[in-house]
Amino acid sequence: MTVPPLLSRLRLPVIGAPMFIVSNPDLVIAQCKAGVVGSFPALNARPAPVLEEWLKRIIGELGEHDARHPDRPAAPFAVNQIVHRSNERLNHDLDLCAKYRVPIMITSLGAREEVNRIAHDYGGITFHDVINAEFARKAIDKGADGLVAVAAGAGGHAGSISPFALVQEIRAFFDGPLALSGCIATGGAVLAAQAMGADFAYVGSGFIATEEANASPGHKQMIVEGAAADIVYTDYFSGVLGNFLRQSVASAGLDPDNLPKGDKSHMKIGSEEARVWRDIWSAGQGIAAIKDVVKAADLVARLEQEYHAARARLGLVA
After folding, report:
1. Residues in contact with 316: Cβ distance below 8 Å, sequence separation at least 6, in sequence order
2. If you average pLDDT over every residue of the chain, what do you get?
3. Predicted structure pTM score
4. Of the candidates 155, 170, 269, 293, which lies 20 to 30 Å from 68 by C-alpha distance?
5. Is 282 helix (H, G, I), strand (E, B) or coil?
6. How many alpha carbons fall within 13 Å on the CB side of residue 270?
């Protein structure tokens, strides 16, 4: 398996998942300074011109960090692009990512060859979200450098296949960079992702419960108090299957156990989707491991300690 040089010197093999509404420059900068990849969806920057402001700030602050700490430079950052054709902002956002030479682009909801080409033309790399082996093959055929295997239990839009099965099937034909998403909330789980064959753990819910995240106090507290039984898997809200916090669904006046089936032909992208996710909160099934709202750097430190403790239990050398 080959890991791009850009990702070979992370403090931990962790990519912070780009989370709709939640991921913002404060969180991304904190993640990168702590030594893991920080990311955000381009659509979080609203209105569209705000994306340029975010990119300037992230690049500027990480550059200042590197100048002050040449011995421990920041990790690279990533921008998530929703490449579904209903995203009217895509071309605008891609142009800005090219202008500012965003190191990593993570694409979701449809692999598109031209998006990979744009990133490659300026020297960037791309990862594509997939929920099964069929989508993985299509993404690689269209030029994606790496994959994010979104397995059962992941927060937000998620698949339904066990991480063991999904990684196994993808590794049968792909030896490039692979991140695994789904219930990864401890350092031991990060190590387990590697043991299964992934290069990186894709961590989302833990970063929602951080001080820097753009999530409401209620959302953060619901994660801290929650467990796997508090997660509902449904396509009702956006037309795509995903995992949501049961109590937030109930608080919106809906029955979490009797939600109608969603309509994928009316997929919600952009401002319409934001109105839904503002009140219906997402999280993955691994949230029982999240006990407090902390700084992002403190979360990374906990994951690192647990990761090395797990290695030591197995007798693995540093």
Report:
1. none
2. 93
3. 0.94
4. 293
5. strand
6. 13
